[in-house]
Amino acid sequence: MSNKFFKKSRLENIVITIISTFGSIVIALITAGFFKEWWDKRKEKSSRNKLIKQIEKDELIHFTLKEIKNQYHADRVSLIQFHNGGTFYTNSPMQKASMTFERSNDGLERMAPHLQNFFVSHYTAFIKSSIDGNMFYSDLDDIDDIATKALFRMSGTQAVAAVPIYDRLTQYGAPNGNLISLLIINWVFSEIPSDIIYEGNFSNDFKQQLHRDGQSIGNLLT
């Protein structure tokens, strides 16, 4: 009798163990599915929030560029941003840049579609001149570098001013970090305002103010 009772108890224990194990597996699967669904929704929400924040930031940058364009009666104001562009066979990085923001007057062809993923080496003189604080030309004919002059002639520019933007900025855009962008102003068919011209060229007050404008945009980019 005791032997039968022992076998019965053992069988019951086995059944209970199987049921418990199966239940644990079911619960684990349900929990995993619930967690995955929760995690996917969380990621989707996070991605959506990031996108919304980026759109809001982009709109603010566009608004700032429009204000700069109107302030200086320019025909085009744009940003060129530096970015990674892959690697060469030697494993050295490709330094590239793209025009990412552009505000222009009616009747002007947009330049942004033509200036995407270009090699920095194509316009080294222009970039270096901007970094050195020398990219201020009230007359495009005064530019010595042929590639720089051709770049702006392509868009009908008659006068240009450009300043560097860094990820960390000090007074008037002096570098204290990494170069991330260039702020560029073009006058195509509009006259340069007389109050920013001194003895035939851009005044120092305008140059300093443009650096401050670049700093404001840099704060939005970073």
Fold and architecture overview:
The protein is an alpha+beta fold. The chain has 2 domains: 1-53; 72-221, Beta-Lactamase, CATH 3.30.450. Helix content is 47%, strand content 22%. It has helices at residues 2-71, 124-131, 146-153, 204-221, and strands spanning 76-87, 93-104, 118-119, 136-137, 159-166, 179-187, 197-198, 201-202. A hairpin with a 5-residue loop joins strand 1 and strand 2. The radius of gyration is 31 Å and the shape is elongated. The termini are far apart.
Shape, per Cα inertia axes: elongated
Order of helices and strands: HEEEHEHEEEEH
CATH superfamily of the largest domain: GAF domain
* Percent of residues in helices: 40-55%
Secondary structure elements and pairings:
Elements: H1 2-71, E1 76-87, E2 93-104, E3 118-119, H2 124-131, E4 136-137, H3 146-153, E5 159-166, E6 179-187, E7 197-198, E8 201-202, H4 204-221
Antiparallel strand pairs: 1-2, 1-6, 2-3, 4-5, 5-6, 7-8
Helix pairs in contact: 1-4
List the keywords.
222 residues, alpha+beta, Beta-Lactamase, 6-stranded antiparallel β-sheet, 4 helices, 47% helix, 22% strand
Give the gist of this structure:
With 222 residues, the protein is α+β, with helices and mostly antiparallel strands.
